Amino acid sequence: MAKVVVAMSGGVDSSVAAALLKEQGHDVTGMMLRLWSQPGLEDTNRCCTPDSMHLARRVAAKLDIPFYVVDAKDAFRNTVVEYFLDGYTKGETPNPCLMCNRQIRWGTLREHALAFGAEYIATGHYARLKQDSDGAYQLLRGVDLGKDQSYVLHVLTQQKLAQSLFPVGDFPKEEIRDIARSFDLPTASRSDSQDLCFLAGGDYRDFLREYAPETTQPGEIISRDGELLGEHQGLAFYTIGQRKGLGVAASEPLYVLAKDIASNALVVGAADELGQLSMTVKNVHWISGNAPSTSMRAQVKIRYTAKEAWAEILSGVRGQTQVTFETPQRDITAGQAAVFYDGEVCLGGGIIQSAEEKYGENTN
């Protein structure tokens, strides 16, 4: 059996991952990352509060496995938090979980695990792995599609996948809780958190006001043709497709269409102005290690909670890829990940750079 380091968070999923691996006979060690939090608010960081650390230690003791805490505060602050702030500064809506997986879990933690002598790292992500006929690793959706996390794992390379285990990916969430109860784990009934771990239980708007105040400056709300309609409270506080909270009186509902960073203006319009048929995706990573040599048809998710949509994908130069949808997509947002799927197989993905064609303006 293998020597495995499990990334433990004090949650039920990573706890069950450790329990399942221990039951299978592996030499299991728990490792928890101590991440950066706002100064003075460390006790409310979702990933490594004293309560979370205490729970992880209790699980490790229950399973009779070693448990260590790794200080990753500086690495996390300099990569994940800076990525988050930089994205909003550029008018994007970043997903910091992507950077955390690439640089922290499969960076800092993986390095510590390998130095510890581990052959694999394991996490509580809902995803699965499979090797194809050539021995290459494929990343598959988790069995529980409602919890599937392949979207945030598309950044992993073949080497990192070869050293990874996802023990909970073969189970639905409720069964994971049943398994936790069967092991009498103290995390069995702990609720899931949907917040960004470093926001200390607060609102991202307050975080940006403190750490990136330039993103929270008021400005004009305008129509596509430049008509002044009102004032926004900061471009970072709005998302593409947003309807509520605009504070603009109009004869019909208005939606956020775009952000004009140069003029600090929020562009809004009617529902029939929403929707794009194509977008450019940058920094594209293909899990197989090879970009397709020709255009391909695949399903594309434009954010973690989005429904997949069929599109044609054409790889370009310098990691840029053109994605053309079969039907207009309303919420294409720069900074979010576009992730490509062939059925249950996650092919890879990249970061949305721009949407390039408004619905109804296809000139062929």
Automatic annotation (TrEMBL):
Family label: Belongs to the MnmA/TRMU family.
Any single Gene Ontology cellular-component annotation: cytoplasm
Known function: Catalyzes the 2-thiolation of uridine at the wobble position (U34) of tRNA, leading to the formation of s(2)U34.
Keywords: ATP-binding, Cytoplasm, Disulfide bond, Nucleotide-binding, RNA-binding, Transferase, tRNA processing, tRNA-binding
Disulfide bonding pattern of the chain: C100-C197
Primary site of residence: cytoplasm
PANTHER family linked: MITOCHONDRIAL TRNA-SPECIFIC 2-THIOURIDYLASE 1, TRNA 5-METHYLAMINOMETHYL-2-THIOURIDYLATE -METHYLTRANSFERASE
Domain tRNA-specific 2-thiouridylase MnmA-like central: from-to ranges: 205-269
Residues annotated as catalytic: C100, C197
Chain sites annotated for binding ATP: A7, M8, S9, G10, G11, V12, D13, S14, L33, G124
Cell location: Cytoplasm
GO BP of this protein: tRNA wobble position uridine thiolation
Xref: InterPro entries: MnmA-like (IPR004506), MnmA-like_C (IPR046885), MnmA-like_central (IPR046884), MnmA-like_central_sf (IPR023382), Rossmann-like_a/b/a_fold (IPR014729)
Keyword Transferase: yes
Source organism per UniProt: Candidatus Desulfolinea nitratireducens
Site (Interaction with tRNA): H125, Q336
Domain tRNA-specific 2-thiouridylase MnmA-like C-terminal: 278-352
Keyword Nucleotide-binding among record annotations: yes
EC number per UniProt: 2.8.1.13
Protein name from the UniProt record: tRNA-specific 2-thiouridylase MnmA
GO molecular function per UniProt: ATP binding; tRNA binding; tRNA-uridine 2-sulfurtransferase activity
Catalysed reaction equations from the record: S-sulfanyl-L-cysteinyl-[protein] + uridine(34) in tRNA + AH2 + ATP = 2-thiouridine(34) in tRNA + L-cysteinyl-[protein] + A + AMP + diphosphate + H(+)
Region described as Interaction with tRNA: 147-149, 303-304
Source organism, top-level taxon: Bacteria
